[in-house]
Amino acid sequence: MLIRIYRNLKRNITEDGLIISSSGFLVNNMVGKIDFSRPLRILEIGSGRGAFTRELISRMSPDSQLDICEIKTEYNPWIEQLIKATPGKLVNLHNCCVTHLLVEAERYDVILSSLPLKNFEDPDSQHAFLYQVIHAMRHGLKEGGIYLQYQYFKSNKSDIEQVFGKKMDDVSFVPLNILPAFVYSMSK
Ligand SMILES: C[S@@+](CC[C@H](N)C(=O)[O-])C[C@H]1O[C@@H](n2cnc3c(N)ncnc32)[C@H](O)[C@@H]1O
To answer: Roughly how many angstroms between the first and final C-alpha of the chain, as a whole number?
Structure first.
């Protein structure tokens, strides 16, 4: 029993970059930065079991559109249930790596990412995949659009700033989460 818990915990941390799902405090902090008063094209990356997805679906207007990009199919039942529960909203789930989805330039008003960027670091390749991911996000974001990203330990802030060519618009801290998290807001 203990060994199974330890294995699951280890897998969550190494593969997904988290211990348990994000808290309501973190979800509200990030989703609260989005202006839902107009139609939006939103991309959520790394939905997991849908901590952010539920809130995004509930707050988005009926003429907005939400794409969800989650590389693992094992979370599909949770996401599909959320989609089924709100038939009036335009929501699509894509099971692929985000670099494959973000090919069209300037498609999204909002990109909300839970990606564990720190896990993508690889000094041997000069962090090639990490930079590919951040470049893809910038490419897919409209002018004036906003990229929201949470990270632990303020990691990868300077990598994002380097790719976007400017300082972060805002960094907020959410202590009530496991682990405490920093929320980055970067406009294009
Ligand atoms: C830290 S978890 C976040 C889960 C949930 N959003 C939360 O905050 O509780 C990161 C998620 O990103 C997904 N992921 C990792 N690499 C990805 C990639 N290249 N493209 C799309 N999703 C990816 C993982 O499968 C995992 O579900």
So the answer is: 48
Per the CB < 8 A criterion, the answer to whether 98 and 133 are in contact is yes
> Residue 79 carries which side chain, given as an amino acid letter?
I
Identify the CA nearest to 110 among candidates 173, 26, 22, 36. 36
2 alpha carbon – ligand 1 mean position (Å):
25
Q: What is the CATH number of domain 21-187?
A: 3.40.50.150
Structure tokens at 21: 């799902």
Q: What is the pLDDT of residues 138-158, one digit of tens each?
A: 999 999 999 999 999 999 999
With b for 16 or more beta-carbon neighbours within 10 A and e for fewer, the 25-42 pattern comes to ebbebbbebbebeeebbb
**Position in ligand 1 atom list of the atom nearest CA 133:** 19
Q: What is the rounded distance in angstroms from the CA atom of residue 107 to the CA atom of residue 59? A: 20
Residue 88: both structure tokens together: 């009036």
Residue with tokens 């294995």, as numbered in its chain: 7
Nearest residue by C-alpha to atom 13 in ligand 1 = 46
Q: Which residue has the tokens 């790719």?
A: 163
Q: What is the pLDDT of residues 9-29, one digit of tens each?
A: 555 655 566 668 999 999 999
Query: Is the CB of 180 inside a 6 Å radius of any atom of ligand 1?
Result: no
